[in-house]
Amino acid sequence: MNFACMYAFLSEDPREVFTSANSTAMRCSVMLPPVGNKAPTQLDLNIYGKNAERFSRLRKGTYVYIHGAKLRFDLESRTHSLHGGTVVQVNDQFPMLNTVVLSGRCVKDIATDDARAFKTTESGLIICNQTLSVNTGRNQADLFNFYAINTAEDKLNNAELLVNFTRKGVGLTIQGRLVTDAWKDGNGEKKSQTKIQLVSMTLAPKGTSAPAQEIKASTTLSSETAAPLWGGRGAEEESDPWSVNAGLPDLPGQYGAAPELEEAPF
Fold it and tell me: Is this model's pTM higher than 0.70 or not?
């Protein structure tokens, strides 16, 4: 699973990056609002098909809600991007939503003696970093760094849950939000890093040898024809640009198979 819902600000006019006889792709740099004491998150939004035609009419400075996009991560450039979904123009009073849901497998064991993976601060915070490999199709995967931060007194201690229950190869579904740290290095140069801040997680169920039971319908639909509730309209379907029949090319960047990491890639 790879599902993102975001409130964003268009940093530029959408521009066409691909077109053919039956499909269009538009791209635009967008900015996500800061979370807490973090910096705003800048990334590219890529929209396809019929949604791209509507998206092309929007202009720089527009507030939008992005529903059902896929989050991607380019390991070479170390940048995140959003792909697909539906974009709706909103105003500056719209809730600042920032939700990412990802399902995949953990790529490493967490070493509690490695401060880059797990540490406690003098103020009592517990911080744990993990990396999730999420399948993108075609036997390839994206790597997503995410972290949990909480105190020992919190009722839901995600940092300790990550340490105690996640291992290399363990299936995991996470809900989080994109956050960006910004700072200046010793030379005064501006630096930034975008990661996923964990909100909640669910471990994959353990396998079972019990035979699957047939599910039978408990109700019978009436054969009477009722007036259409939505006036004859139906929900729009959006083609996934990574599906077999979508026909869209890979976008620039190296989205290779997830490597076997000796250390966390952050």
Answer: yes
